[in-house]
């Protein structure tokens, strides 16, 4: 099948929603799943912690601190993701999540949407109030997050991600994402 025809088929539309820790990706995944969309959360489907030296998968250590964070990285399991993207399904597929190497997958999606923070206080408040994920609560993780989120957001934007202000209400963000999905 030629690529132009395949891209016009509604069951081939694929979207990626990225953002720093606490930006609302998992919450939005649950909302879109409840609305009947095909969704996946990278945290539970395609992400894995790896030892930098051995490249072996390891369990997350929320109390590991700087030493643990220097030796481990949150990565995308590309074979698992590409297998999911190759499946046949009706309607759009929306993947929510971020890994250290997520940009490698941008070309696999029709659109990449970025949940963007505006300032450090916003990051701190969102991480403080989150209840479904421990990442970022440890002071060393927060320090790493604060040192990297602006750079990553800019890299994502330069590589084609469409920014969405994550300080808006969940309802407003859902509407923006749905408009992007239905705006072929």
Can I get a quick summary?
The protein has 184 residues and is of the alpha/beta class. The chain has 8 helices and 8 strands.
Describe the protein's architecture and organization.
It is built from 8 helices and 8 strands; from the N terminus they run αβαβαββαβαββααβα. With about 180 residues, it is of the alpha/beta class. The protein has a single domain, classed as 3-Layer(aba) Sandwich (Rossmann fold). The strands form 2 sheets. Strands 2-6-1-7-8 form a 5-stranded parallel sheet, with helices on both faces. A 3-stranded antiparallel sheet has the order 4-3-5. The protein is globular. The two termini are about 20 Å apart.
Features:
5-stranded parallel beta sheet, globular, Rossmann fold, 184 residues, 3-stranded antiparallel beta sheet, alpha/beta, 43% helix, disordered N terminus
Counted beta strands: 8
Catalogue the unreliable spans. 1-10
CATH H level, superfamily name: P-loop containing nucleotide triphosphate hydrolases
Residue-averaged pLDDT: 87
């Amino acid at each position: 099948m030629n690529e132009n025809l395949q891209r016009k088929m509604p069951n081939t539309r694929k979207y990626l929603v990225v953002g720093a820790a606490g930006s609302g990706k998992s919450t939005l995944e649950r909302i879109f799943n409840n609305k009947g969309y095909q969704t996946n959360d990278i945290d539970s489907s395609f992400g894995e912690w790896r030892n930098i030296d051995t490249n072996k998968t390891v369990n997350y250590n929320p109390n590991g601190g700087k030493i643990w964070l220097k030796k481990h990285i949150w990565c995308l399991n590309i074979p698992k993701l590409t297998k999911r993207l190759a499946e046949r399904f009706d309607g759009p597929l929306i993947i929510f999540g971020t890994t250290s190497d997520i940009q490698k997958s941008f070309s696999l999606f029709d659109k990449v949407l970025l949940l963007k923070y505006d300032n450090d206080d916003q990051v701190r408040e969102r991480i403080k109030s989150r209840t479904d994920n421990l990442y970022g609560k440890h002071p060393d993780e927060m320090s790493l997050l604060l040192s990297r989120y602006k750079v990553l957001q800019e890299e994502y934007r330069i590589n084609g991600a469409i920014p969405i202000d994550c300080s808006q209400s969940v309802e407003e963000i859902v509407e923006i994402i749905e408009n992007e999905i239905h705006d072929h």
